[in-house]
Design a protein that fits this description.
By secondary structure, the chain is α/β, with parallel strands linked by helices. 23% of the residues lie in helices and 43% in strands. The strands form two sheets. Strands 1, 4, 5, 7, 9, 10, 11 and 12 form an eight-stranded mixed β-sheet that branches.
Length: 191
């Protein structure tokens, strides 16, 4: 009987520790403002709206990579936003015109986690043309959502997308310039 109580106590202790770690991460995330990178001449950024519902203590086990069939070198990886914020900023991208017509859902290795959920190529109904100029931040016109939860011995992460509505677009267009280093950039909606 002592062995059963000890196992029960260990499970409870692990659950409490996990909850404490999640609470600490949320507290830290609410105290740290998201920061835009410093502007580099000849480069722009793409801002991708992203909402997360993560019912686990793990980072997201899936990421999205925006791609173009016209330009094999174009690739914007969307990982979990820092501190569960609601927008992902790309790495600096050389100014130019790009057509984004699909996304790849890829697995992100997480130690000790078996993952399931949406993977593979998702073609967009309408390709997104991005005309990126020096110093621009272009707001990607789609909202990506990630839902992650635990099922039996694995973690499920499903990622979907939908067009931004006007209210969401205004939210991001106001949020981005207010971020640290925001004065260095011109924020534009994608036409």
């Amino acid at each position: 009987m002592d062995g059963m109580n000890r196992n029960s106590d260990l499970k409870l202790l692990r659950a409490l520790l996990g909850m404490l770690l999640c609470a600490a991460a949320l507290l830290l995330g609410s105290c740290v403002a998201q920061k835009l990178p410093q502007h580099e001449a000849g480069f722009g950024l793409v801002a991708v709206p992203y909402q997360i519902s993560n019912q686990t203590t793990y980072q997201l086990v899936k990421a999205i990579v925006l791609k173009s069939t016209e330009d094999a070198d174009f690739s914007v990886r969307i990982d979990m936003p820092p501190f569960n914020d609601d927008v992902v900023i790309s790495q600096p991208i050389p100014e130019g015109s790009y057509v984004v017509d699909y996304a790849d859902a890829v697995s992100v290795p997480v130690s000790g986690v078996l993952d399931r959920g949406s993977t593979g190529r998702v073609n967009f109904t309408e390709p997104v043309r991005i005309d990126l100029k020096d110093g621009d931040i272009i707001l990607f016109p789609m909202l990506f959502t990630a839902e992650q939860y635990r099922r039996a011995d694995y973690v499920v992460c499903n990622i979907n997308h939908q067009p931004l509505d006007p209210e969401q677009q205004n939210y991001y267009l106001n949020k981005l310039p207010a971020m640290e280093n925001g004065a260095q950039w011109r924020v534009r909606a994608n036409p």
